[in-house]
Each structure stands twice: as structure tokens, then as C-alpha cells.
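Researcher: We're teaching a course module on how sequence relates to structure. For the next exercise, students receive a sequence and then see the predicted structure as C-alpha cells, so they can try to spot secondary structure elements on their own. Here is the exercise chain.
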Amino acid sequence: MQFRKGERAAFLEIFNASKQRIRQFEGCQHLCLYNEAGFPEVFFTYSIWTSAAHLDAYRSSELFQATWAETKALFADKAQAWSVKEVETVGAS
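Model: And here is the predicted structure for the students to work with:
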């Protein structure tokens, strides 16, 4: 997600106000927020869901609708999202 200049703090307020409710949403196993190094207005969220049905339920929820509406209003560009599946994990040796 790329935010307009000056909207970083507003986005972080929205994220901080909703992160625990998102994380506690049924099926959410993991939630992280990343900031692109060198680009303070670019953020990525990374979440792991028990199933596609759990993610779809979240996307249909009032929590998502309200949070997304607030967040989307701050965008500098259209957001991108991907659903991925793990191919391999390489552990420490």
C-alpha cells in the first residue's frame, strides 16, 4: 500500500487501533506490518489464515469494511493484494 505524503501517521493510527481485532478474528493465525526500506509511505501487511473461507469471512466483516474504508482514503495509488501458498520453508542449520 502506498500512502500520500503526510498520511503515514494516520495509517499507523488505523492499523494500531485495529490490529488486535484483526489478529483475534477467527482463522487469523499471523499478522505482520512491514514498511519498505527507504520509502516511508509504502507498507505491506502479511497475514496467515487457516483457510480461504476464513479470509473471505474477514473480508466480508464489518471490521474489514470499516478499516479498509478508512485506509483506502489515504492511498496515493491503488493497493495490490495476493493470496499465496507456501512452497517450502528452509530452516536454520
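Model: If you want an answer key for the exercise: Residues 8-72 form a domain with the Alpha-Beta Plaits fold (CATH 3.30.70.100). Helices lie at 8-23, 52-59, 62-72.
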